[in-house]
Amino acid sequence: MRNKFLWVWLVATPLVALPLLAFAQASHHQRTLIINGQSGEAPVIESDGHTYIDLETLARIGNGSVAFQGDRIVLSLPALPAAQPAGSAFSKEFMKAAIEELSVVREWRNSLRNAIERSYPITDDWVSAYRTQAADGLRRASVEVTTDADRSALQSLTNEFNNMDSLANKYLNTSNAREYIRPDALRDDAAYQRILTCARSLSSMISTGQFVDDASCS
Hints:
By secondary structure, the protein is α+β, with helices and mostly antiparallel strands.
């Protein structure tokens, strides 16, 4: 049977064959992929400056299909939705910057969760590094604001950053004070759950290209 687990170079080039050994040595990551306004988590492989993704995953996220017809591979994706009125939708560059910022905050949030669940030390240098990276991403997003939706979403992104910073500082201070932190502390932490809810809400907004006011992002 034909092996249908194929990888495609995400740059606009023909399909590129990558040797199995290169796959084994390549860098594997989980990324948020947005196609025609639809987003989803997808495993990607980075090798020699190129990024690869499974064709069937690409089709699934884009609500399309992939078919294998002899020596042909047919990838079909739905047409782009009609343009929204000016100001009511996110600009392309802001969406890109917002996605990058959400990714950084997600890594910060997940690293804090892992440290707490595994009782790892939480240090000033560790928190400062994530804070600086997220603050830089927020500044880049602010530069790309051009529509009313961008401005509203930027405020939500700023609140998400501030809330994440406060949460990290809370557990940093607790760790510095040598106080015990339960491995499941975040499960009952209202601030953490609010940050998580806001992140999901912002991701949903970006996938639709429209801003929706959400109290969790205040």
